[in-house]
Amino acid sequence: MKVQLHSFKSFRRFQLLAVVLMGGILFSSCNSVKEIFIPPPSRSYIAVIFSDVTGSLSSGEKKNVSDLTVKLIQGLPVGTKYVVYPIHSNTEFPSPLIEGELGNSVQGQAKKIEVNNLSSLLGKLNKDVDTLNGSDQKSCILNTIRTARNEFKNRCSSQKSCVSELFYVSDMIEECNRTPLNRPVNLNKSDITSELAEANNFPEEEKLSDITVTIILPINSQEVHSSTRPNRKDFEEYWRRIFVRNGLEKPRFFNGTIPQKL
Q: C or N terminus of the chain, fewer CB within 10 Å?
């Protein structure tokens, strides 16, 4: 009987030890599951760029636009998917000048070739525009906004999955006969009071959140043409109203420089 009792007690101790060990394993497993870090899905960086090549710019300003556009692309974060469109008279159904995705430093040489190619394309387009007659050198900027909205919608599965940037390298002087307002718009004058009022009638679009709008003005674009251009306050207010009506953020303005942090 003593042998049996001792065996029974040994068996019970073994059972208790097994329960404790299993409990420890399960507890440890639960803690391990809690400590596993699942990183959020990576966000896509999208940049839509409109670069001015029209006759409203002086030759020096065109060169400045070309240089700024190239520097802008070079300063975008690695992995950014970008597309560059020209600003001219036919922006209702534009074709991209260039599009791509910025690689890392290992692909730096390919990136350099690409932006050099862009500079050549802009230079060629500038010369082509210069050969056109005056009526074809108009700047139809208002029509570009719909193109930009479509680009962001097509390239982003959802707004939360994208960091979206809209850039204009331009003097932003609208001179266009075919606009979403169904009437010509001309900002190449000192008094744009009526245009400011008309901006409130721009067709309103649904809000697209988290899209930063940046306008980079060529060097001296306001000063050189001060007698034939609207004052800076009215000029900026006009475009603020336009972009807000289009469901976008109010634009940031920069004079001949690229934002330090893109």
A: N
Q: Cα–chain-centroid distance for residue 175?
A: 24
In terms of Cβ atoms closer than 10 Å to its own Cβ (0-12, 13-18, 19+), residue 50 is buried
Q: How many helices (H) and strands (E) does the chain have?
A: 7, 8
- DSSP string spanning the chain? -HHHHHHHHHHHHHHHHHHHHHHHHHHHHHHHHHH---PPPPPEEEEEEEEE-STTS-HHHHHHHHHHHHHHHHTSPTT-EEEEEEESS--SS---SEEEE---GGGHHHHHHHHHHHHHHHHHHHHHHHTS-GGG--B--TTHHHHHHHHHHHH-SSGGGEEEEEEEES----EESS-TTSS-EE--SS--HHHHHHHTTSPP----TTEEEEEEEPTTHHHHTTTTS--HHHHHHHHHHHHHHTT-PPPEEEESS--S--
Q: Which parts of the chain have pLDDT scores under 50?
A: 1-9, 11, 14-41, 105-107, 132-135
What's the pTM? 0.75
Q: pLDDT tens, 109-164?
A: 555 556 666 667 666 666 555 554 444 567 899 999 989 988 888 887 665 678 88
Other C-beta atoms closer than 10 Å to the C-beta of 157 total 11
Count of positions (residues) in the chain: 262
Name the 3-class secondary structure at 61.
helix
Residue whose tokens read 């059972």: 15
Q: Is the dihedral of CA 13, 19, 21, 27 positive or negative?
A: negative
